[in-house]
Amino acid sequence: MANCSENRKSVPELFGSAVFNDDVMMERLPKDVYRSLRKTIDEGKDLDLTVANAVATAMKDWAVELGATHYTHWFQPLNGVTAEKHDSFISPTSDGRVIMQFSGKELIKGEPDASSFPSGGLRATFEARGYTAWDPTSYAFVKGGSLYIPTAFCSYSGEVLDKKTPLLRSMEALSTQALGILRLLGDDKTQQVITTVGPEQEYFLIDKELYKKRRDLMFTGRTLFGARAPKGQELEDHYYGAIKPRVAEFMRDLDRELWKLGILAKTKHNEVAPAQHELAPIFSTTNTACDHNQLTMEVMRNVADRHGLVCLLHEKPFAGVNGSGKHNNWSLQTDTGKNLLDPGKRPWENLPFLLILAAVVKGVDEYQDLLRISVASAGNDHRLGANEAPPAIISMFLGDDLTALLTDIETGKPCGNLAEKKLQTGVRVLPDLNMDNTDRNRTSPFAFTGNKFEFRSLGSAISIACPNIMLNTIVAEELRQFSQELKGQADMPKAVNALVRRVVSGHKRIIFNGDGYSEQWVEEARRRGLLNLRTTVDALPRYLDQKNVELFRRHRIYTEAEMEARYETIMEEYVKTLNIESLTMTGMVRQEIIPAVSGYVSELAQAVAGKRAVLSGLPCTAESQLIEKLSTLLDRAYAQVEELEESLGDPRAASENILSAATHYRDTVIPAMERLRLTIDELEQNAAREHWPYPTYADLMFSI
Ligand code: ADP
Ligand code: MG
Questions:
Q1: 455 alpha carbon to ligand 1 midpoint, in Å?
Q2: What is the atom index within ligand 1 of the atom nearest the CA of 333?
Q3: Which CATH superfamily, name and number, covers 170-558?
Q4: Which ligand 1 atom sits closest to the C-alpha of 199?
Q5: Which tens digits make up the pLDDT trace of 193-216?
Q6: What digits encode the pLDDT tens for the residues 232-248?
Q7: Are 290 and 168 in contact, with CB atoms under 8 Å apart?
Q8: Cα atoms in the Cβ-side hemisphere of radius 13 Å centred on 212
């Protein structure tokens, strides 16, 4: 818990106090060392070992002052979590004492035992060992007595085994292509284009004591059974409602912990479902945003624990109320501070804006599959298309004015510049675009919201790396194509007009401003030829389509082998998740639910027998009918458990053909789980409270 002196610190004092950031570097590093390091950070220049040694020593001294005894290379393996292995700074001296030491070599490179991280078979084909390499673009920090060094993770032969490396590559690809466009449009000042991201994180908080009483929550992060509580979210009294004192204390502590780590935690509020909340940071560079979101999730769990709470990050902890997502707000910014997705007051003249908008429209349409894949997981399958989150169909919301602008460009005469055309066709007045016209259409998976796009299909538990890798690379590719087309054009506004026009007429099917939750949209989307990849298993195989392999190869994000590895890893995770859920279910039913209900039935039977012994004519309808009902349900549950267990089959077979295993889980195992759940939930509604072995939905969601 934050100690007293920390509690007294003002927020500006506290902010970043555990981060080896630019201020600390400037203060602690010799000038020339600082300059070399800055060059490495800003321009990706290699760092020589003497500089690395100086940085390492300064970092270590600083970390030790903050109480650190260890350092760790912190990385993001393919399973979407973070990994760390801690080494202490101690180094023995000849007289039997120790000193604290940390070298440049240790800073730059680590060699964790890579064999236990998912690699989708990559290491088997290539090289067993892996190494981590310092990512100087993300600041090191101190947490829990260790110096954390953000790193990338690769195999020895260079195959990427993490999520950070491709993310960094995609940022670079987009910067290169966007710069190309800016140059063509006469901008020679901008040196770099940065993708910015602000991820809004949803989560649930429940009481720790109750959590510990449910194996499903402990093993799978969600409830596998649970009859609906009499009250859910229908009164709409939780969203933005007053924050309860215990939650407020948690949030206060969480904010301070995040601020110490330099995380720009900004907004907090109650969400739609009871016990659900949200935290949003101020946006930052994508790489930092990704590191910070991983840290935020971890700190949320730890702080909750200190408050006797558990933070559930699963996409669907409770059936029947909203699940949790993560909105990925995304934009492009020049190093001169200009937001390229800001339409400005005269968007029809804003050529960079029009081109990037067109690139996003074309890219989202051509790579719907990749965007859907980037958010695919067993957990998120519960949300997409379930009328609480965007549908599994990818489309874009642009709002009335932007749509009108694009339509005018599409239908306008091919001559003249955009400004004139605007006057001719009289598009509505646009200056208030930022405020009112990007309405709060929450049903769209991908919405323009004033000066950024908000990708809303992400699940709460996933790393934001993958969705951003997709977005950056897709848009980089479209901008590359645009550059080729525009190169050498004398009349740039005219050429841009023609290009945007063609993009709009070729790709407008992806633009949809209506209600994404409606049945009509599913029909309409089908007519438009949009993909509707409802489950992870429907989506994933398209990852390896030729056009996708080519996309990533062209921009040097992934090799085909790396893509295959990723495909394998995600599919395996899907199968394993469902396998764990099934086994947890069967265990709970066999070991806890059947004995509990059977005990209750026998109690009822004794009550009937007792009554009859006293007076044979006493009415026993309630008990008798209940005995009958519960016994029927018990038998059904028993049969369904057997059925579920049989459907799991031999887990070894799964690894031989991952697609058929995953398909089997989707088509056979999930329905068996659902049938069993129906029976168990009915049992819960009919069993005596004291005989039910678990806290109920009402207990879990209304206990804090
Ligand atoms: P909402 O109404 O969806 O809550 P907000 O305006 O509060 O929208 O912003 C939500 C998130 O969008 C915040 O995390 C914010 O930092 C982020 N955001 C704002 N501008 C940008 C930008 N230019 N690039 C990336 N993210 C941004
Ligand atoms: Mg939002």
A1: 11
A2: 23
A3: Glutamine synthetase/guanido kinase, catalytic domain (3.30.590.10)
A4: 14
A5: 999 999 999 999 999 999 999 999
A6: 887 888 888 889 999 99
A7: no
A8: 6
- Going from the Cα of 20 to the center of ligand 1, the distance in angstroms, rounded, reads 26
Q: Range with the lowest mean pLDDT among 120-129, 149-158, 620-629, 634-643?
A: 120-129
What residue spans in the chain does CATH classification 3.10.20.70 cover? 4-161
pLDDT (average), residues 481-504: 96
- For the chain, how many residues are written? 704
Phi, psi values for residue 158, rounded to 5°: 100, -5
Nearest to 633 by CA among 596, 580, 670, 665: 596
Q: If you take atom 6 of ligand 1, which residue's CA is the nearest one?
A: 449
Between CA 237 and CA 242 the distance in angstroms is 9
If you average pLDDT over residues 614-635, what whole number do you get? 95
- How high is the pLDDT of residue 231? 82
Q: What whole-number distance in Å separates Cα of residue 663 and Cα of residue 34?
A: 54
Residue 529: CB atoms within 10 A of its CB come to: 8
pLDDT of 654 reads: 66
Residues of the chain with CATH 3.30.590.10: 170-558
> For 193, what's the count of Cα atoms within 13 Å in the CB-facing half-sphere?
28
Cα 260 off chain centre by: 23
Q: How far, in Å, is the centroid of ligand 1 from the Cα of 452?
A: 8
Closest ligand to Cα 453: 1
CATH 1.20.120.1560 intervals, the chain: 573-701
Task: List the beta bridge partners of residue 284.
Answer: 197
Tokens of 576: 């394993």
Contact predicate 265/296, CB 8 Å:
yes
Return all residues near 185 (Cβ < 8 A) that are at least 6 apart: 351, 352, 355, 492
Ligand 1 proximal residues by C-beta, below 6 Å: 196-198, 200, 267, 280-283, 329-331, 339, 451-452
- List the residue whose alpha carbon is closest to atom 5 of ligand 1: 280
280 C-alpha to ligand 2 centroid (Å): 9
Structure-token match 């957990």, residue found: 379
Q: Quote the pLDDT of residue 138.
A: 92
**4-161 CATH fold:** Ubiquitin-like (UB roll) (3.10.20)
pLDDT score, position 472 = 98
- Quote the pLDDT of residue 437: 43
Residue 207 contacts residue 307 (beta carbons within 8 Å):
no
- Could you please state the CATH topology (level 3) that the domain comprising 573-701 is classified under: Four Helix Bundle (Hemerythrin (Met), subunit A) (1.20.120)
Tell me the pLDDT band of 652, cut-offs 50, 70 and 90: low
Residue 112 has pLDDT above 90, yes or no: no
- Of 273 and 148, the structure prediction assigns the larger pLDDT to 148
Give this complex's ipTM.
0.96
Element (H, E) at 537: helix 536-539
